[in-house]
Design a protein that fits this description.
Blueprint (H helix, E strand, L loop, with lengths): L3 E4 L5 H12 L7 H25 L8 E9 L5 E9 L4 E7 L3 E6 L4 E6 L2 E5 L2 H18 L7 E7 L4 E5 L4 H4 L2 E2 L3 H13 L7 H13 L8 H5 L20 E4 L2 E4 L8 H14 L5 H7 L5 H9 L2 E7 L2 E6 L2
Parallel strand pairs: 1-2, 4-8, 5-9, 8-10
Antiparallel strand pairs: 2-3, 3-4, 5-6, 6-7, 11-12, 13-14
Helix pairs in contact: 1-2, 1-8, 9-10
The structure holds zinc ion.
Amino acid sequence: MINLISKSLAVPETLFQLSSLKNRLHPSNSNLASVYSDIEKREAGHKGEKIAEYYVRLIDSEQINIFHGLRLRTPKGHFFQIDLLLVSPQFHILFEVKYQRGNLQLNPQTKEYTQELNGEVKKIANPFEQSNLHAYLLKLWLDARGVQEVPIYHYIVNAHPQSFFTINPSDLKIASHFISPKGIVQEYSKVHKSTQFKSALNNSQMNNLTNQLIENHEELYLNIFSNYSIKKTEIQRGLICVYCGSFHVEKKGNQFKCHECKRNSSLSGRNGLKDQYLIFRKELTPTSVQEFLDLDTRYQAYRLLESNYEKKIIRQGKAFYIPKL
Ligand SMILES: [Zn+2]
């Protein structure tokens, strides 16, 4: 057996939310550009994490547990997300994973981090400060649970193949935290060697810690409306044709017929349920679905929900559904 993936890499929920939102905003909506740009950023982030995942899986050790995208809450209630975490009996390593293009420059004195791309220079979040902060917050989190203390190391991995990174003025200590995805295995080996005779968590402590990390993960969901200052009335209702994107789809019996391209697809209904759930983040009811998808009858909405739900909750005699995503 090699290393253990305790929490595997998944497409973030926020990307599904944004994709549903994009489908439902009118092409002339003033928020559309920032929705597209956020989708691009999150897709890039996920791409970087996929590259890092490939390399972290090359580590040949039975002793580490790997967690992708853990989002934890500090004892004071602040959330922090760790892109990639390796938990071992002697140490933990946290990787802040980026997918940033262009010329990246860190000034360790002013703490300014800039990205130069297509002749334009802009200031972006300093990843060294981020990883430092995450290591600190992870320590607080572990301390609050009485987990035996082992050293926490942190690195920044930029997975973009066309990027150049400089630290100016030079600072070797800070520079050693910036690595490429290929460097993940090497840094792991270095840390492993330097800590192998140090005190360590026993098997039961390791299992306990792994369970606690999994149980305390809280997935991030966007509040679409406050995030983009979008009004509920700006979300276009109705069924969307999966072939041509038109809203002129009609449900007849079990069929969804598009009046623009004349094609049929049963997916229009299922996608509509997904959009509604992902955008509003509320359990669905036949009444709300009938209204959102502009269906002729509540019974149509009921049938659609009955054939596409993942979870059904009965509360005071009423059914609430979470659709299959
Ligand atoms: Zn169509």
